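Lab channel / #folding
Pinned by the channel admin:
"Please post every new chain as: sequence first, then the structure tokens as a reply. Keep commentary short and put observations after the output so the thread stays searchable."

First post following the new format, from NK:
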Amino acid sequence: MIAADFHTFSDSEPPLLLTRRHAIHLAACAAIFPEAAVARGPQTEVRDALAKRFTDDGTVGGFVAFKVDEKLFVLSDNTRPRQAILPASTFKIPNSIIALESGVVKDPDKDVFKWDGTSYAIAEWNKDHTLRSAIAASAVPVYQEIARRVGPTRMQSYVDAFDYGNHDIGGGIDRFWLTGNLRISPMQQIAFLDKLRRRKLPVSKRSQNLTCDILPVTKVGDSVIRAKSGLIGVDDRTARDGITTSVGWLVGWAEKGSAQTVFAMNLDIRDPKHTANRMAITQQLLGDIGAI
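Reply from TO:
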């Protein structure tokens, strides 16, 4: 009987050189024992052509997608998808789960966060919100109030339990994801999002189901994209006097029939159009890899 020893590499571990004899051996194993090939776990492909979607729009960025059925990671390059930066408003996804799980929010459609009267340049922030309307408007003040009610001890326990980014909530309980110490890479975003997609986070199914239900949805033909955007540089203070941004996020998953693809994209904001173009560029990238 032929046996093979398959090894899973970490991000920092260099790949072993594969000799022709080893390649033949592995091919034979996969042919005789297809389950062994599956046991190797997810594979990774870097497709340089994907980066052209950013340069065509006059900027640079990074994209990574995990095609669930194929157990395949597709990256635009091997560097940016592994670089950790502030999550900005993409943290509203875990913050929503935490709000529901902790009881800070009991019903995402009935519990109301009253507007405090502060005038923001983003008009949608200047009103009362439920959790559902707050995530749709990406209302930073609402989620800051949620974080204050959760408190640092409980917040840290949830961030640790979710294995979210670098786990560091330093820099203020109501701004650690905006201007503080929290950092997460696109690859880490996918690790978190895939657990949520599968309802495998260490919290109740109810909290995960409700969070998935309130995520903004975009329909593209016969596909559905559930995603949250983020803009590093937009918070409760900068939004009072106008918006200045540096990096834009879009993270989530796409559903095409029964096939699902988890993705994370960020790009440099070099022109106001780049903020508006995040979804369009992401749709192009997802289309390039057959996810939508």
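NK: Residues 1-39 form one domain.
TO: also worth noting, The longest strand covers residues 223-232.
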